[in-house]
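Risk register update: the risk that structure generation would not scale has been downgraded. Supporting records follow, first protein first.
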Amino acid sequence: MRLSVLDQSVAVAGRPHDQSIRNTVALARHCEALGYDRFWVSEHHNHPTIVGTAPEIVMAAIAATTERIRIGSAGIMLPHYAPFKVAEVFRVLDALAPGRIDMGLGRAPGSDGRTAYALNPAANERPEHFPSDVRDLIAWVHDEPLVDRHPFAAVKAFPQGSTAPEVWILGSSDYGAQVAALFGLPYCYAWFFSDGAGGERAIDLYKRTYRPSARHPKPHSALCVWALAAPTMEEAQYHLTPRVLSRINRDRGIMGPLVSPEEAAATLGPHDQARVEKIRRDTFVGTGPEVTARIVELKDRVGVDEMAVVTWTYDEAARRASYTELARASGFAPLS
């Protein structure tokens, strides 16, 4: 099974934000050593829980300290930016790590409306241009002609080279699936974002409407799930507790850093325990073999080519250990 990692540089109570960013870079090296296929970083803005705001910069840092693992954005929120500038950034990234760069693109703002406007005063007009922006990006990063009579037809993205970023479309709705199918691009559905709601439909739509491209004659799909593994179920559930509280708080519009398992457990006491137990039950949590079995079952049931995992923990060592457990259970890391 091809297994990859999504990291979001999550804030943790009592830990400086800069440490969260450095932990992301260190985790990439750890996951490369374990044999993971890709390491993707996300883009969020004005978010007290997720402090990864500039994935392209983090990608450059990871490129400088790794040798094999593919490095990607999950994703660049395209409405915030001019496509040409994104093309230039990713051409530079590809120069730093030739043939290892994934350019994952998203249409969502990764923020609230006011923050989106602060990033780009024309952001409200950009989402409707998403398909044409994707089209132009594909051309620019591959040094191919833009469409006839394009106003920027003479403009080229440098540096050029013999390799190019692999373009992905990311999403949690049918829209992204349709755009990916239209341009013949790989597609990854954020299963963790909606607990899978609409995921099977989006993947089916992507496959049914897929238009083969020169680089991708066949559809290529992936799912990203939230998962946590530990030597025992009891230990895994212990480390899951801050994430459970974060999920419940998110539903109430409350964002903040992860707190310790003990503080999270005490805070969860007055909450609806049925809701708490449902989150625990629906999350991919347990021993390495248990979590891996659930990931494989979902992969086979939905019929995707790859899986990716995102994990939040208060204890950074527990997060690294979780990826180690999954790598061993998946068979691409040594047992000792």
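Supporting record for the second protein:
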Amino acid sequence: MRPQFSIIFFTTLAGMAQGLLFFIALANLHSQAIPSIFLTILALPVAFVLLTLGLIASFFHLGHPERAWRAAMMWRTSWLSREVIALPAVMAVTAVIYFYAGVSEVPRLLWFALLFTTLALWICTAKIYQCIRFIQEWSHPTTLANFILLGMTSGWILLELLIALWGDTSVKMIDAPLSIIAPSLLFLSFNLKLWIWSRNRKLKPKSNLATATGIKGSNIRQSSMGLMGGSFNTREFFHHQTDKVIANLRKTILLCAYIIPMALMAYAITSSNSLVIALALLINYLGLLAERWMFFAEANHPQNLYYQRVS
């Protein structure tokens, strides 16, 4: 498939904000560990800005942005419609919590609502792709697990950075043993990605030229698709990159999205240096952009069995 950069930015920015909000909600439900002033001045505004940027980025994917509101009308059957509802729901709950945090203690019910809406948004976003059964690379539970793990990982690193920048010893989220959460999440998501790539390499098309055309035989070969140039099908369902580019991109993903941030965050366990955590977050996000590009690029649409090349 041809990756759309608007969707790449939306899913990575929103996923990071969701991870940040998820752990803030979890921490406050557990022990009210995060002071309200930290939430109102830094954490919640940062999360809201990321969600807003993700929302803006998603509009660039639409042919008619002015009709975006109509996307929510099919919520009974469409995961995309449910995502359109879930994202504003997360933003609304975040805004209400911001209001409460500024004047009094946030009710526990709102923290539960934030947990629920962030998880719902992850599920809706991942299910948009997981529910497409004829794309085998996506149609698997690991699609959902990958979205959630990567969002949690980037969100936790962002939370650690915000706490380090805040510099208040009353905020204890990055003390051991909680500081090992980032390397642990990175390690889990790293192994999940390796397993996904291993699975994808073993996938075989459920159809072939013989079954598609009804012609019996094992030596059927297509030499032309009957076009003098490209078409919508050849533009939208191919990433148009060489095998060498894809191989190098995989190495970049492993290094930037997982290995280097894992090493930096492991170092941050003993020294909560904001520069180290900021570098880990930056490298991790660049790796996430590459990982999400690859997520779309490695999806092999069945129509590619026919549109193999421009003759």
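The chain has ten helices and no strands. On this basis the risk owner (M.S.) recommends closing the item.
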